[in-house]
Model the fold of this input.
Amino acid sequence: MSRVRLVPILAVSVMVVTACGGSGGDGAGSSADAGITIFNTEPENPLVPGNTTEVGGSRILDAMFTGLVGYNADTAQPENAMAESIETTDSKLFTIKLKPDWKFHDGTPVTAKSYVDAWNWTAYGPNATQGATFFSQIEGYADVHPEDPDGADGPQQAPTPTTETMSGLKVVDDSTFTVTLTEAFSVFPVTIGYEVFSPLPEAFFKDQKAFEDAPIGNGPFKFVSRQVGAEVKLTRYDDYEGDDKPKIKDVTLKVYQSRESAYADLVANSLDFMEELPPNALAGKKYEGDLGERVLQKETLNNQTIAFPFYLPPYDNVDLRRAISMSINREEITQLIFEGSRVPADGWVHPLTEGYTPNQCGEYCEYNPTKAKELLAKSGYTGPLLLLSNTDGGHQEWAEAVANSIKNALGLDVRFTPSTSFGEFRQKVNAHEMTGMYRAGWIADYPSIENWLTPNYRTGSSSNDGLYSNPAVDAKLAEADKAADADEAITLYQEAEKLIAADMPSVPLWTQNTIGGRSDRLTAAKIDPFRALDLASVEVG
Amino acid sequence: MGRYVLRRLLQMVPVFLGTTFLIYALVWAVPGDPFEGKCGERDCPESYVSAMREKFNLDDPLLVQYGKYLLNLVRGDFGETSSGVEVADRIADTFPVTLQLALVALLIEAVIGIAAGVVSGLRGRGFLDSLVLVSTLFLISIPVFVTGYVVQLVFGLQLGWIAPTVGSSPSFGDLLVPGFVLASLSMAYVARLTRASIAENRRADYVRTALAKGLPDKRVVGVHLLRNSLIPVITFLGTDLGAFLGGAIVTEGIFNVPGIGGLVFRSILTKDGAMVTGLVTLLVLVYLLMTLLVDLLYAVLDPRIRYD
Done:
């Protein structure tokens, strides 16, 4: 029998671990060969542009691909990137010419075919991509992406498409292709800056699995390596032809389990950039003490609204909707709850968008309890009101404040009804099962006045969940879509917003500023209006 | 002994089936469509949702789904997540990190906990005893996330002695601080458990006999007293290793350790059923094996315990 001798030891362990901070403090490098580490979340999808619509994957692919159009990092205005010109006479047939000499990271040229093949692949139903619906305006989409007869949840399968290519896409020569839309759509050139419209190299069609493991793009940065769940490394592509050439060399997109842990690294200068600080840093403006001049702020293209279920009385009453809007003290709530990082909204179009008209909502978006009471009396409603929202993502506090504001101003019984998860909440919204007014918001897919109006307020549109419908608005939006030039289109969209304002289909609450931070090492860094780091602006001191 | 082990191993089969079925059923029964909110503010295209439902057999009855899943599992195929990543690969990446963290924590817990327990149990009512009682009470009463954040804030940010988070492939040294935080709560329990056990056995007949025989104190305590007193402690430590493996979610989150905890947490949030079931299956196996190991250790510590 073995003898085990266990002698008690008084262990006083002093744990001073000076692990390397990881900030590579040699400081000698100028920007040209510097590497930075930025915050990321784990990509939820394989790394293919047409199949990535969530943030974690987009941050990687945005750096690796440059599409036909890019958006200005300050103003969000669209600018030609790979496109030499996009021409149309009727807003239905577009001729797109590419700039010469562009190459993918594997050395193969980017041609008109790279775009056409990529778009066809993404739209093709059986490929089951997340971005397919973005191509629905192109002629022939219905042939490559037939509708499932009983919806995605039903037992029947969607029929196999008769063809793999959309009839609306035609390669003219190596650097020219044409796009024909089913209906005239004047804003089309603005929409194609979204990353699902990126070109794909030959290599993708030969071996998709290999591409997903090591994507090949045409953008300023090329792929180096990926450690799933931990990080993705990119490095500068020296033969990049675009104007947004980076000044730094390497970028590591590091996956964090939580924003709080990333924030700790940011404060300690071992993380170089994070575009949105966690709630514990925002509370009481703690970040100002922690980061000082390293705080970055930027107005971003999203807004918060309260939407109404038009299928449920009394919310279909315009006077009641106006009364609700006038009883919300936006100024006070944005100051008290968001410490001023939200800006009260005065219309349905975001101020950063071309075509924004100040004060479209007029007096109905101003806090005026007296007028609100008059409108309430006019509507004849005296019962209770419900405000629904999901509570994940920090929506509980403001939703309670808004409910209270309405309650105090109108003297009605207003209750806040929480849902615990966004998924569950969205499911009820989609199924039109809302029992009261509810939280809504919009993040622009592309910076156009059209994107703030059509998806939300046109009859039957993708995100018109409240089933708002006004034939005059629909007609005006359709007219704007058909406009021959951009200026005319904008004027018509503005008229549509005026018509929408009269109906108050949703209550605009506020638009958002994102508050991020950078490390000491970065001497310049900008957040763009889409809440991402503008990599071209980064300089290391 | 061999028959006992075999019997225990066979008993694992129904436990394994029961737990995996429960987990599988629960994961897919969570309210909310798993593909809702996956495509940003827009709804996912129908073709995408259909393809995913097909991939995870969501259109079959629950029992058939589970059957298909189990069949693959028995063949060693953990399946793929909706992002096309092999679940088995992710487990192979993250499990060693968490195991490392759990072992560091277990070591800290055992060494400090048992030492403190023995010292205070032997003295009784002295200054050291009170010190141990008060400090363990203190540790027990603060939740792990508070300990974690305070350690990170004080030593990481204010004093700058440690990096606030660990890197992508942490070494044992990197894991000392998170390991300490993870172990802190159980360490207090181990100390108290050891103390009670020692204090009780100190007056036992066999200790008196050993002392009467004239054995040196060191030997009486180290071999006779400690061996008997450690039985409840070993039980606790064994199941604790299982708990560390599955319950490191908070600690791994604070120190950004790329281990199982964060993976479980994220997979639950993104409703990645394949990943959650795979991970939990693995954790169930670890638990079962640990309890078996603990039961076998009893015989080593106390030869009177037989398995027949």
